[in-house]
Structure to design on (1241 residues):
């Protein structure tokens, strides 16, 4: 509620009525129970509306100011019409603070005493805990304009609310308990309330005396209330619902003998029981069958109302329960004094939460006919939900058809959602699992759930996605999985469903209809969900090949583009449920449990040093090397910016207790308080010159040698009492945070890359240099030194060569590398190696400990991350990574997950790994081609440690043929008849080789001195461009040369046979295009290249029209720039048209003609060569991949998972083959006519 007042007026004391606040005699009730008020999603917009509403009591001065406020609000909505969907902080600033600033500016001269008061009542009734925290933080953070705004928030003392208030030291708060309020004050409030309500009842009924019901009766009622307003409210409603019998009803209540000493609910229980008994007092007159029906209706209707998770209208409840409107309204009419309902479409709400508690407690509601068994009610509601869902759910619930449509598309408005998902279906979609969990699970339920999920899982997830509740859908399936005790088929299906939803979360949550295409295609073909949903693919998807057989240990993959960030580009939240990572120009926050992005915020420039605060509320990072941003993950807004004026910031840490933020630069160490974000202590480089004795004397030293902080070393002790720094004069200094003083200093013997420093679990400081380990005792200030005993490879006693050290998080274990291959683990206390060495085949330079110091990972920057167990030294697992995407590794705080952060974020589940396993190193798809008939996909699988593997996939038979090439393949092609593969690359001696393989026999033919090649369309001939600039035609059947073509004077880049094999076209690096009659060894035409002459050409392509009357060629000179293209008439040898085309990095094919020769297809668009003809619906435009989408006819068709963003691909007509950096290959074939229908083309 919002209200403006003049501070010169007096307050009347607010009445202590339920849910009301009173100012200047006006009482405003906040309607409880509605979804909007409970979710608080419209709180600030509602406040803005109330502030902008003119009051009848407004003066002339405030009226003009109100106009200024309204104008400011209109301007805010004009500038940002979408503000109602923006973050809470933006709404508060633009809809409340700025308009109020305009209001007070207008009043400054004429009414300087006017102020605004906002009252937020019953904050605890907000259903979302994050909303409660966000509301308090948003209001507490904002500087109030001219100090003219006062905010009053009332709430029951729930733990969450109390913690939030106690955490905000700059706001006033107090607790008020009715037990502490004098009884006479409460009774006085109750007496005023009863007088007012009884007067209203008397006025509605003739025959009552003016003093009815009398002071003595009122006194009895007052004592019965026992200080509870809800008792008084219920009694009044009970009397008001039938004024004709109000006196008899009142007498019945007064005749009840309430026993004292049985708790404060006894009188209220009697009141509720009286109301219920009176409502159903005629049961004795009914027949047995009528009694049974009455009991069943009561249990069904009232039981549903008691256990429902949202307040539904009578109409919606009728649709959910299949109980008629008439029956529901009849029951509600009888119970109107305890259940509020003003119409068939208005929400049904309980008068007070105590009624729910009463009617569901058999010890308090002693009438078996009236008590509600909540467990039975939950089970019945679960069955109602399942019945509704089974009848209603289907593919494409909102009849949108377009597979690329997003949840935030303007077409997907509330009307369309309501048409596809009526309110009762929405309720069933959101809450069926909750009712199942609370009602208990039996065999019949399991059977029903099993049937439902196998038939409707995808439909249900689609529905949850349209309602923006994808995260809740994943959590529901996770809870269902945990609810099932045995390894049943249903439990296995739930595990698979959860994996399916997490892996495809980023796709489905934004584009729900992709669950029927992208999610099915890119999930393993042996997935239980995919097998159960094989018939759910859309009609336009004819065939597809999934890239993998079964699920792996990958939990989440997301594109981050984080290679440009100088520090660890990823951070886990303390509870391991969220990750934050850099992604281009923003920070993204993802739910690891749900596989979706839950928030993001933009950066002004490159950030670094990404960290979650110890309580998980904030994300902190350095921006511009000059400030620390603190982003509030609850309010979803930037909380504050910490700056050290005149100084940079290189690194920072949170103290383990979360109270402080400590940053370091060459010149300063700054300590801020985390709660207030205020400076607490600053250490300057000048402090490094003083010894302990000098500090005690507080001297004023003269010029000294320049000493500065080494920014590579900054540690905070486990108990958050000490800061450890290292200065450029090689001295470790320990600073006491509480006393803001130097505590101790330790000289070092030099400082190099082998030095390691950190605090142990018992707060001791550990310093490792070469083979020397120094432990500084926290309590005694004494130091203990040990020497590492590490055998060298030559079996001598001690190794003294250069070493690299890593200290475990608890300071108990030291990992030491001797040469980048051998790793030794030592006890810190003794210096002794406690097991055999670990050996890595490739040199590693990065090591990461798990938080419990039980596991380590080794990463070499090549193509694998190795996971080791510390105690056994076993290699637990090896995770393949892309060697072209270097990154960093990080364990989750709970040790259950391992993250790899490069251009892609990959997170693996390592919680269940206990046995030794070694995976094959990672491979990537470097080249991919579709055969001419579209039935074969040939691709090159590249690994860093082995020659390229050539594969030919038969998409009809789902069978692969593998050819070992013995080359590092740089280019390859497949013959049109799918019998031959030609590969070019370097062999083990780095010599360039070209091999022709017979696919069936896998026998290679070595072809020397080759530049480029091309198969004829009949697959009988192979054109070979040699290093001598000559073209030779090789007969594949007779294994001999047929002719030699001479004419080029430089290296030849492209060869292409015409459709009939009668002609051959070639392009050289100078850009000259030649057309040959190779049978007569005759040059038919030469088309010189004009623009860009002299520039090196790095790529080109040629295409003949089907009738061989036209030739198109494209040449690319500069990477990233458009290429110049020409269309030539082969009958006249003259240019017909010039054009440009973009470079598609991931696709080899650039140009092609439509079958009728009308359209020239290029990337990314198609050219109509005969635009004067009638428009043609089918332009035969090729399928392309752009911005993580498979696109056709300039429309989004298939959303690619994040790990496919750089997929190599090839397309022909309605077929597409693609391969990713994990060595996986996928294939799709679609029906153009059906896809046009779906896209509305």
């Amino acid at each position: 509620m919002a209200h403006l007042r003049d501070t010169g007026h007096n307050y009347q004391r607010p009445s202590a009525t339920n849910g009301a606040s009173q100012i200047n005699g006006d009482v405003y009730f906040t309607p409880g129970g509605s979804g909007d008020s409970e979710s608080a999603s419209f709180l600030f917009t509602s406040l803005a509306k109330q502030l902008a509403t003119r009051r009848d009591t407004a003066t002339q001065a405030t009226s003009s100011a109100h106009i200024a406020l309204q104008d400011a609000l209109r301007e805010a909505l004009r500038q940002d019409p979408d503000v109602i969907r923006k973050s809470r902080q933006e709404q508060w600033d633009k809809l409340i603070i700025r308009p109020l600033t305009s209001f007070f500016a207008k009043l400054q001269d004429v009414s300087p005493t006017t102020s605004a008061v906002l009252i937020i009542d019953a904050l605890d009734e907000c259903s979302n805990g994050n909303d409660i925290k966000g509301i308090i933080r948003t209001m507490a953070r904002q500087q109030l304009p001219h100090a003219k705004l006062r905010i009053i928030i009332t709430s029951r003392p729930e733990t969450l609310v109390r913690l939030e208030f106690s955490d905000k030291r700059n706001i006033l708060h107090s607790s008020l308990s009715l037990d502490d309020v004098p009884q006479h004050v409460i009774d006085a409030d109750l007496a005023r309330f009863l007088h007012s309500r009884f007067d209203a009842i008397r006025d509605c009924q003739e025959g009552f005396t003016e003093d009815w019901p009398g002071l003595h009766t009122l006194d009895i009622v007052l004592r019965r209330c026992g200080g509870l307003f809800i008792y008084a409210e219920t009694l009044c409603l009970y009397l008001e619902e039938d004024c004709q019998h109000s006196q008899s009803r009142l007498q019945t209540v007064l005749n009840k003998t309430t026993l004292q000493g049985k708790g404060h609910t006894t009188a209220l229980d009697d009141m509720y029981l009286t109301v219920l008994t009176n409502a159903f007092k005629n049961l004795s007159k009914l027949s047995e069958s009528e009694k049974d029906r009455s009991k069943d209706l009561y249990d069904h209707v009232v039981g549903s109302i008691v256990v429902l998770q949202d307040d539904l209208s009578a109409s919606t409840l009728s649709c959910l329960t299949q109980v008629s409107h008439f029956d529901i309204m009849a029951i509600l009419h009888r119970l109107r004094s305890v259940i509020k309902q003003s119409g068939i479409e208005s929400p049904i709400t309980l008068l007070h939460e105590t009624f729910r508690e009463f009617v569901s407690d058999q010890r308090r509601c002693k009438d078996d006919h009236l008590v509600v068994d909540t467990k039975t009610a939950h089970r019945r509601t679960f069955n109602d939900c399942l019945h509704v869902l089974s009848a209603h759910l289907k593919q494409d619930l909102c009849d949108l058809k377009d597979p690329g449509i997003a949840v935030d598309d303007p077409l997907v408005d509330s009307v369309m959602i309501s048409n596809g998902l009526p309110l009762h279906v929405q309720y069933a979609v959101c809450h069926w699992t909750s009712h199942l969990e609370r009602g208990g699970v039996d065999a019949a339920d399991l059977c029903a759930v099993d049937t439902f999920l196998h038939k409707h899982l995808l439909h249900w997830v689609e529905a949850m996605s349209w309602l923006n509740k994808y995260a809740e859908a994943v959590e529901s399936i996770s809870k269902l999985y945990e609810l099932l005790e045995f390894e049943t088929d249903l439990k296995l299906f739930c595990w698979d469903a959860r994996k399916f939803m997490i892996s495809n979360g980023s796709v489905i949550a934004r584009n729900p209809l992709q669950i029927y295409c992208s999610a099915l295609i890119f999930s393993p073909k042996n997935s239980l969900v995919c097998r159960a949903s094989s018939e759910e693919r859309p009609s336009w998807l004819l065939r597809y090949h999934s890239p993998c057989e079964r699920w792996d240990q990958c939990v989440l993959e997301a594109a981050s583009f984080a290679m440009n960030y100088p520090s660890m580009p990823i951070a886990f939240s303390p509870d391991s449920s969220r990750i934050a990572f850099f992604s281009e120009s923003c920070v993204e926050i993802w739910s690891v449990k749900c596989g979706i992005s839950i928030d993001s915020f933009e950066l002004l420039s490159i950030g670094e040093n990404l960290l979650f605060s110890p309580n998980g509320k904030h994300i902190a990072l350095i921006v511009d090397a000059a400030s620390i941003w603190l982003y509030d993950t609850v309010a979803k807004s930037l909380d504050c910016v910490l700056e050290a004026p005149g100084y940079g910031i290189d690194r920072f840490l949170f103290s383990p207790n979360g109270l402080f933020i400590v940053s370091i630069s060459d010149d300063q160490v700054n300590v801020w308080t985390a709660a207030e974000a205020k400076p607490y202590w600053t250490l300057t480089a000048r402090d490094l010159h003083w010894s302990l004795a000098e500090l005690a004397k507080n001297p004023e030293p003269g010029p000294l040698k320049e000493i500065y902080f080494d920014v590579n070393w900054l540690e905070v002790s486990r108990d958050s009492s000490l800061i450890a720094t290292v200065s450029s004069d090689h001295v470790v200094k320990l600073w006491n945070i509480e006393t803001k003083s130097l505590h101790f200093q330790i000289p070092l013997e030099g400082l190099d890359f082998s030095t390691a420093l950190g605090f142990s679990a018992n707060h001791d400081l550990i310093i490792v240099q070469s083979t020397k380990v120094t432990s500084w005792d926290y309590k005694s200030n004494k130091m203990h030194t040990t020497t590492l005993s590490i055998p060298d490879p030559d079996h001598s006693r001690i190794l003294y060569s250069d070493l690299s050290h890593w200290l475990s998080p608890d300071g108990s274990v030291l990992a030491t590398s001797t040469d980048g291959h051998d790793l030794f683990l030592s006890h810190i206390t003794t210096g002794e190696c406690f097991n055999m060495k670990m050996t890595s085949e490739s040199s590693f330079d990065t090591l990461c400990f798990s938080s419990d110091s039980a596991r380590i990972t080794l990463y070499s920057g090549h193509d694998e991350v190795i996971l080791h167990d510390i105690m056994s030294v076993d290699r637990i697992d090896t995770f393949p990574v892309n060697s072209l995407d270097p990154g960093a590794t990080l364990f989750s705080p709970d040790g259950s997950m391992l993250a790899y952060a490069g251009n892609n974020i990959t997170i693996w589940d390592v919680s269940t790994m206990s046995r030794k396993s070694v995976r094959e190193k990672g491979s990537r798809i470097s080249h991919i081609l579709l055969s001419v008939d579209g039935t074969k996909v040939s691709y090159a699988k590249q690994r860093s440690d082995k020659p390229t593997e050539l594969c030919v996939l038969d998409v009809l038979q789902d069978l692969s043929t593998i050819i070992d090439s013995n080359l590092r393949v740089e280019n390859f092609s497949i013959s049109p008849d799918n019998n031959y593969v030609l590969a070019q690359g370097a062999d083990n001696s780095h010599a360039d080789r070209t091999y022709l393989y017979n696919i069936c026999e896998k026998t290679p033919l070595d072809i020397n001195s080759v530049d480029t090649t091309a198969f004829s369309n009949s697959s009988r001939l192979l054109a070979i461009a040699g290093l001598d600039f000559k073209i030779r035609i090789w007969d594949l059947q007779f294994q001999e040369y047929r002719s030699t073509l001479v004419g080029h004077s430089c290296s030849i880049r492209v060869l292409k046979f015409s459709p009939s094999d009668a002609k051959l076209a070639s392009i050289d690096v100078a850009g000259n295009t030649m057309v040959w009659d190779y049978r007569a060894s005759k040059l038919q035409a030469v088309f010189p290249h004009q623009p860009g002459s002299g520039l090196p050409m790095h790529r080109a392509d040629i295409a003949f029209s089907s009738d061989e009357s036209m030739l198109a060629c494209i040449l690319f000179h500069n990477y990233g720039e458009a290429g110049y293209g020409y269309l030539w008439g082969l009958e006249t040898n003259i240019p017909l048209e010039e054009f440009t085309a973009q470079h598609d990095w991931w696709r080899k094919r650039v140009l092609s003609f439509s079958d009728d020769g009308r359209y020239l297809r290029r990337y990314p668009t198609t050219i109509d060569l005969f635009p004067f003809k009638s428009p043609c619906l089918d332009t035969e435009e090729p399928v392309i991949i752009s911005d993580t989408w498979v696109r056709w006819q300039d429309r989004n068709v298939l959303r690619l998972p994040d790990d496919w963003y750089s997929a190599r691909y090839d397309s022909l007509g309605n077929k597409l083959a693609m391969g990713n950096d994990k060595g996986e290959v996928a294939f799709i074939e679609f029906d153009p006519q059906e896809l046009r229908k779906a896209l509305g083309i």
